[in-house]
Write a structure and sequence with these properties.
Layout (H helix, E strand, L loop, with lengths): L2 H25 L6 H30 L2 H10 L22 H16 L6
Helix pairs in contact: 1-2, 2-3
Amino acid sequence: MPKNLFVSLLRTGVPIVAGLLLSWAARIGLQLDDTTVITYVTAAMTFGYYAAFRGLELLAERLAWRPLQLAAGILLGWARPPAYERPPVLPLKFKLDLAAMNQDIAALKRVVLGDEDRR
């Protein structure tokens, strides 16, 4: 499963599960009335809907089928899939001479200001 798909599914599923667990904990007892069952079914169907259309969107992207990708994106509320950018990684080094420190500071400035490629 591609990282972007996995992350986007987690970003949707985790809050739903957290909300369910909190509401469940607030009850302190397992009394499953109609309202509770509807809540759980709604949460599961919401996650299933998102997972299905996000997977369809990813498939359309891999097949380069733009109309299907656009349709799936619109049904998800946005025409483009989310893109998660990797943050820059800075090595941790300790150099005690002034010239080396100046080189490290210059490298840090390049990364922070976006002058360096973020592989």
